[in-house]
Amino acid sequence: MKRLQLQAVNMRFGPLHVTRDVSFDISTGERAAIIGPNGAGKTTLVNIIAGELHHTSGQILFDGEDVGTLSVAQRAQRGLVRTFQISRLFTGLTVEENVRVAALHRKQENKPSRDDIDTAVHAGMSKLQISHLAHKEVDSLSLGEKRLVELSLALTQSPSLLLLDEPAAGIPRSESRMVLDAVNALPSDLPVILIEHDMDLVFSWAKRIIVLAGGAVLKDGDPQLIAADEHVQRIYFGRGE
Ligand SMILES: Nc1ncnc2c1ncn2[C@@H]1O[C@H](COP(=O)(O)OP(=O)(O)OP(=O)(O)O)[C@@H](O)[C@H]1O
Ligand SMILES: [Mg+2]
């Protein structure tokens, strides 16, 4: 199982210092949530890890390799996978065809056989319980269903670490539960970094919670430790004092 290590990572946008000396390690089967107030730098951090942004100092190691200068695609090849945005789904193709495209791009040592690809496609859909949507064109799906397809595309790429930034954002309330249930049902041995504002989900799902405030790690630990921390309660939950 691969390990992600951030060492004193900083991100500056001109004079704006958005990520401040962030260090943490994520390894085997960890389900980590990143929480923090709006503007704390959570999305920026995920963008830095996925390769959409290049940090201005510090190091990002994945499985011991410095991946800090690699592109999004190169990091995905190594198993560092972020969910596709809905706009990346191929409209005009069915759900199954979309999943097949992801299966063809997943990292693997040897050229896969047709059977291997078929197996990956069906596993990708059944894990997200979207097999019944296989032959529907993605344009005809609801937003929540599209989000499930994106998750299935990410899983089909055989990620070693999955990054999810607010998976239920932009989804109508009537469907957000379905999406969060799908996140909850992700394989428990798959390391995931999740940004989510639904604290019920965060505290029941995560094995570890990293609290960001003002771009820096305020607290990092198991859910019990985080829930009990006065500083966290004051800054994040607006309680205490
Ligand atoms: N490309 C950019 N250029 C300049 N400033 C940026 C850029 N991207 C983000 N920022 C700034 O960095 C800070 C952190 O933003 P970020 O989106 O990472 O926060 P967040 O924790 O994800 O917030 P939210 O909970 O609202 O999603 C904000 O002040 C934002 O304005
Ligand atoms: Mg954000």
From TrEMBL:
Keywords (alphabetical) are:
ATP-binding, Cell membrane, Membrane, Nucleotide-binding, Transport
Identify the PROSITE patterns for this entry: ABC_TRANSPORTER_1, ABC_TRANSPORTER_2
Q: Which residues form the ABC transporter domain?
A: 4-239
Q: Which InterPro entries does the record associate with it?
A: AAA+_ATPase (IPR003593), ABC_AA/LPS_Transport (IPR051120), ABC_transporter-like_ATP-bd (IPR003439), ABC_transporter-like_CS (IPR017871), P-loop_NTPase (IPR027417)
One short Pfam name that applies is ABC_tran
Q: Does the keyword Cell membrane apply?
A: yes
Q: Which SMART domains match?
A: AAA (SM00382)
What GO molecular function annotations does the UniProt record carry, in alphabetical order?
Answer: ATP binding
Report what the protein is called: ATP-binding cassette domain-containing protein
Which organism was this protein described from? Mesopusillimonas faecipullorum
What lineage is this protein's organism placed in?
Answer: Bacteria, Pseudomonadati, Pseudomonadota, Betaproteobacteria, Burkholderiales
